[in-house]
Amino acid sequence: MTLTIDFGPNELRKQVEKTCIQGRHLTFIDDFSSAELDNIFRTAEMLEPYWRSRIPVLEGKVLCTQFFQPSTRTRFSHETAMFRLGGHVITESNPLVSSSAAKGESLYDALRVTSQYSDIIVLRHPDEDVIKTIEMLGRDSSPIICGGYGNVTHPTQGLLDMYTAYRALGSDFSKMTVMIATPDLSRARSGQSFGLGLARMGARLIYSGTTGLETSDVIREKLKAMNANFSEVNDLTIGQHEEMIADEGVDLVYLPGCSVKKGDSGRDDFMKKMAEYYFTLDGLQRIKQKSGKTVGLMHSLPRNDGEFDFSIDASKHELYFKQIAFSVPLRMSLLVNICGV
């Protein structure tokens, strides 16, 4: 340990001051520096004892959740986080039916209006062009946290996935190798957000997808701008996946899951291709025998039959339900750091 001038007992207020992201929007996970990300995780560790109880540091603050797409985990975990922090929540889960959006109100106006009622907003929207609206708003809106925009970005999912890795493997991301595996990397906003965050912290990334559905240019350019240590392979069989995971010393395998709605032909195509991404408990045990590593399996949820072997639930490899538990202290940290104490 190296002694520093700020050495002493942990204090939440000082930690939030050190993180120094108060009032900022969050659109892409690489909006934050590596130091800011590290401080978000340190804050989450300090708040973790209260994820099932209450620490009223945001008493009087109001969170507005505006979701133009279905959500369970993202909306509920942000709302739970605000309640645990002593704040209040107003929510709109079907704005195209039950808000003024049904009357034709623009998103720009809607966000300026709800900013008058709330101190912070979590927004989910199917169109990534919402990013331009938020840039136009600037400081004329309460801080807006992206709860998923289009196919390209879902930074709070990426943050909770990073925090799970941080808690499972330690704080040195530069020692981690992570595989992000899905038939459709072009629409894997959760996996791509996880990857951007890992890259920012110096982890090694292996993307595995299929030809024609590769990582989008916007994400690829961000990775290159960070000089990320990443590679992308396509069209591997499940046997080749297992071999690569063992040979390359992969620590975690992340399955972004299918983001295509039921009834869309793309969903059927996705599920047909899942056979080569269908990780089994036997397969993970074979990897351990070869590499000596207990590889963690992560998934963004919800999951569908045919995506992976559900018997992994009761094994040491399971991390996907733990991700959900870690999402509450992580999002408590995000709310505290952006609202301020």
What does this structure look like?
With 341 residues, the chain is α/β, with parallel strands linked by helices. It folds into 2 domains: 16-154 and 327-339, Rossmann fold (3-Layer(aba) Sandwich); 155-325, Aspartate/ornithine carbamoyltransferase (Rossmann fold, 3-Layer(aba) Sandwich), CATH 3.40.50.1370. 41% of the residues lie in helices and 14% in strands. The longest helix has 20 residues, at 320-339. The protein is globular and about 55 Å long. 46% of the residues are buried.
Provide a count of the helices: 13
CATH fold topology of the largest domain:
Rossmann fold
Please count the beta strands (DSSP E, at least 2 residues each): 9
Total domain modules: 2
Q: Shape, please? A: globular
Strand-and-helix sequence, N→C?
HHEHEHHEHEHEHEHEHEHHEH
Radius of gyration: 20 Å
Low-confidence stretches: none
Secondary-structure arrangement, i.e. CATH architecture of the largest domain: 3-Layer(aba) Sandwich
Which helices and strands occur, and which strands form pairs?
Elements lengths: L11 H8 L14 H14 L14 E6 L5 H12 L3 E5 L2 H4 L8 H8 L5 E6 L4 H8 L6 E6 L5 H15 L7 E5 L7 H12 L3 E6 L7 H9 L3 E6 L3 H10 L4 E4 L9 H9 L7 H11 L4 E4 L20 H20 L2
